[in-house]
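Input record (one chain):
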Amino acid sequence: MYIMLLEVVLKYGGSPKIYWTPEHKAFRDYESSTEREIEGEREMAELRTAGVVDAHRSSSYLLFHHAWKLLLRCHERTPAFVQGVFVQGRSRWHQRRFSHLKITMADGDPICEWILGEGGASKIKRVTPVGGGCINVANRYDTDFGVYFVKTNRDAETSMFEAEAAGLNAMLGTKTIRVPKPRKVGSLPRKGSYIIMEFIEFSFSGGNQADLGRQLARMHKTGTSESGFGFVMDNTIGSTPQPNPWTNDWVDFYREYRLGYQLKLVQQQYRDNDLYEKGQRLLERLPFLLKDLKITPSLLHGDLWSGNVAYDKEGMPVILDPACYYGHNEAEFGMSWCAGFGDPFYKAYFEVMPKQPGFEQRMPLYKLYHYLNHYNLFGSSYRSSCISIINRYL
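The corresponding structure, as predicted from the sequence alone:
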């Protein structure tokens, strides 16, 4: 069976567009403004090997030739496997001329194999890149059985996506707020991993922040753990490892596996002794800063900023890309500095999960974890925010 991993769309009087997705990582427009002759026997031999031996040197043939050369170059620098090439012509003449150009280069795309097997589809209509992420590569797979959302990462082990799937399933289990349903996690050929999940069509007009606040609070209230603070497995916050061992006491967990862990990374990466030493003094004060609080383990999304919040076509909130763990519900707002939560959000949230005294004073303490992570991920531009928060509590 041939899988449409490269689609060359030939247009009368125009240039071809190549949707190149052999590693689900690239989207190329290849412009051919002039007709160029085939150069040398080596290129002709490549075309013969591919089975393109009877096409005439027409304009359309040359357009395909340039597309084919691009695929060959791309294939040399990608570990992905290409299963096939489909050429779609706009006219019946193009369809007849190129109907024989079905080129098999390699087998073994596990994503397509699952979609065409357990996924229930018999045909993949198209693969479209989806923007919005800086860590993984995302694609939409349209099939005759529905639409799938697929993320891939050539540098990640399957454990990263397994942890994401575990978080999504945990949030799904609360039946409080919509999240994409994970379907399959696996390894890519040679290296890397992927996750296949439900595709949710988002609304461009947004939704009601009060609904988001209310449903998030219900998730925090419903999603509890008898094992303490932590999660069933370690995961990542961005691309930073996030340890989640079960811990009975919240102060111990936040000190050792959140702030303490990030401070160690700062010291290892930047040798920032001043920030590290001040951070250690802050860790000693945590029992005092978090005293007299009723803290029970709540299921947290863990990385709730505006890029991980959307609304479906009915205007209901959807939360994505979690870094889940069970923690103090207030820690969920650690990314509020880039989440855009307004008064309707907080009002609806605290109607379900009442605000405890001192909430505003504790917020910078929970923001610090994410500022430290951004310092580790993106550099010293976040250092001043980290120092400012630490000094506030010393």
